[in-house]
Amino acid sequence: MTECEASKQLIRFFCFYLDCDFRELAQLVGVDETTLRRWEKKRLTRAKLARLARAAGLTIALVEAVVAPTLAALRLVGQGTEEKVFRNLEGALRQLTAAAEALGRAALADLFAWLGEQPAPAQEPAEVHWERLKTRTAAELLFLVDTQPELLSRDLVILLADASIDAAATDLARASAVAHAAHRLAVRLGREQGETGAAAGWALGFVGNYERVANNFDVAAGSFAQANRLWKAASDHDRAFFPGWRLLDLEASLLRDQGQPASALARLTEAETVAPSAASARILVNRALALIELERPEEALAVLAAAEAQAAERLDPRVQFCLQLNRGTCLVDLGRLEAAERQWPAVQAAVGFPGKAQEVTLMIWHRARLDAGLGNLVAAHEGFDQARQAYETRKLAAIYAVVSLERAVVDLKEGRYADVKELAEEIKWVFHSKGLHDEALAALRLFQTAAERETLTVDVAERMVRYMYRAQSDPKLKFEG
How many domains would you assign to the chain? Predict the structure, then answer.
C-alpha cells in the first residue's frame, strides 16, 4: 500500500471512530474538505495526525502506539478485513479511554504528552544550542531554526525571545533577527509537532516588542493583535509551557509608548493576576512608568518602593536600572533635587560597565535634567546635546524634540539666542519622521517661528516642555501658547 493509500485509510478510520462523514470530519479538524483531500494524497505528518487525534479526543501517543501499528498490520493482510478491524480497534480504544478514567484521565493524558515531548537521548539542552547560535549571522540563524530538527523545542523559543529583549537595548537589527527566529521556530512547533499555536502567539509578541522599540507602533500593534488571537485559541496544555504574563507586560509597554498609559495600567493589572510572584517587581516597575506618563510621580515613587521591597532576590539588571532611573526622574519632576542628587549614584551603579548604549543615553539625559534644575547650566547643555545626538541617530523624533526643548530652556536662561535659533534649524528633520502627532508638530512649529524671530521666552519654552511630556499620553492635547 502506498503512503497515499495509508493516509486515506487513517482518515477513513477517524470517520468510522467518530461516526461522521468526510465533510463532518473536516469541520471537526478545523479545515475545509479540499484541504483534507490534499492530506489524503501524501503521508500524514505528525502535526496533521495530532489534529486528527484531537478531533477524536485521543492523544497523539495513543494513535501512534495503537492505531497506526494496527492499521499497518491490516495493510499486510489485505483490505477485506478493514471494517472488522476498524470495529475491533474502536472497541480497544474506547476500553483504553475508559481505563484512563479509572486511572485519572488527566494524569494519563499528561503522561502521554510528557512521553511525546521527551527529546531523544542525544538531545542537548536548549542553552547549549543557544550558545552556538549566538555567533551566527541573521541569515544563518533564520536558516538554522527553519531547518534543523535538533533545535525544535519550546525552551529554545523562550531563550531566543528573551535574548531579543536584551538585543533591543543595543542592536535593533540583531533584535529583529532573534525575535523573528523565535517566532519561526515556534511556527515549526505547530507545523511539525501539532502544537496548537501558543508558541507562535507567545513568540509573536516579542516580534511586536522589537517593532515597538524600532518606533513602528502600528506594525507592533498588528503583531500583538495576532499574537493574542493565537494565544487565546491555543489549548490550555500548550499555553502552560509559556509565561503568558509576558505578552500582557510587553503589550503594556507598547500602549504606554503609543500614549495610552491608562490602557497600559489595565494590561499590567491583567498581568499581575497571572504572573508568578517572582515577576511582581518587573510588573510594578512598568506600572510606575505608566504613572509617570500620567504625571502621577508620587504614586510612581510608592510603586517603585513596593517593587524594591517585593524583590525576593537581586533584580534583573534591566529592571534594576529602570527602577533607579525612574525614581530619580520622579524626584526631579517633583522638584526634590537634593534627594535626586543623593540618589544619583544608585542610577550610575545600575547602568554597570560597560553600559548599554540606550541605558547610558537615558542616564545622561536624566543627569542633564538634574543639572538644569540645580542651576548647573553648562553641564546641562552638554548633557542634553549628548542625548540629542543619540536620539537623532536612532531617529526617535518624539524624544529628540523633548530633549531639544529642554536644552532651549537652558540656552534662553544663559541668553544664548543664537543657539536657540540653531536648534530650530536642527529640529527640522522631526517633521518628516514618525512618532509625533499633529498637535505636537504644531507646537514645534510655534517654537521654530518664535526662535527665528527671537521672541521665545523662558516661560513659553518651559511650558512647551511640559506640554510635550503631557502630549505623549494625550495625542489630542493642544499647546496653549
Answer: 2
